[in-house]
Amino acid sequence: MDIEKLSVNLSSDDPAIGLRASLALHRLAERVEAKHVASAREMGWSWQQIGDALGVTRQSVHTKYNKESS
Amino acid sequence: MTTEPVAPEALHAWAICLQAGEEARRRGDRRTGTDHLLLALFEDPSIEAVLGVNLQQARQALASLDHEALGALGLGSGADAPPLPMRAVPKKPRIRDVAQKDRLRMAPAAKEVLEEAVKPNRRKAYVTAQQVLAQILTLQPPDPAAVLLGALGVNTSEVQRRLDAVTPES
Q1: Which residues of A touch B (CB under 8 A)?
Q2: Tell me: the pLDDT tens digits for A10-57?
């Protein structure tokens, strides 16, 4: 990554960057979730436990992730 | 089944949608944007030459844009997680492939790009990567595909010229 560019952006109030950052956060959150759901499964967590941790039903985590973790 | 004259390099419009959806899923997106549509066009090997960049470079540029944006929020490059696995997309998807429960919705701009690209074709199921690319080139930042092309340093008028050279007026 270009360090110089980054430091310029740090001080900017540019909505183009701010809005992109918001989307990037969403994407990052999804990837973090996927990574940890996978490791929870590997550690033997049930879908129920993962659902509880995420505040959703076990069905919804299962439909979202079962294909990837198997 | 498809004996009608369809250009051999034409892609199935649904296959583009699904492939773009997988590109979106890989990044952790909940929507298929124009940027993902652009990535899906690399399914046609000629797109690499037209754009002068390859799929890996395009994906990398998107990741860099994200890093840059997260950096603006004060999140360092340590804030990252691996991309999600992509699923294989059939070349000629059937309705059951498209009507998956967990399919991602298309961003309105992405939908419009595809609709406009398909418009001149008699068979709306097929569209060439060039037709879709031509529509993407009309987009302006802050549209994500336009931002991506900018980040890749792609000269859009040059690409347009190359497209005009390979696609005969129909």
Answers
A1: 1-2, 5-6, 9-10, 12, 16-21, 23-32, 34-35, 63-64, 67-68
A2: 556 789 889 999 999 999 999 999 999 999 999 999 999 999 999 999
Domain count, chain B: 1
Residue A69: pLDDT above 50? no
Where are any strands of DSSP class E within chain B? 11-12, 31-32, 105-106, 126-127
Query: What ipTM was reported for this prediction?
Result: 0.85
Domain for residue B94, yes or no? Answer: no
Within 10 A of B92 (CB to CB), how many other CB atoms are there?
13
Strands (E), B37-159: 105-106, 126-127
Which structural domain, as residue segments, surrounds residue A65?
Answer: 44-70
Min CA distance, B78 vs chain A (Å)? 11
pLDDT averaged over chain B? 91
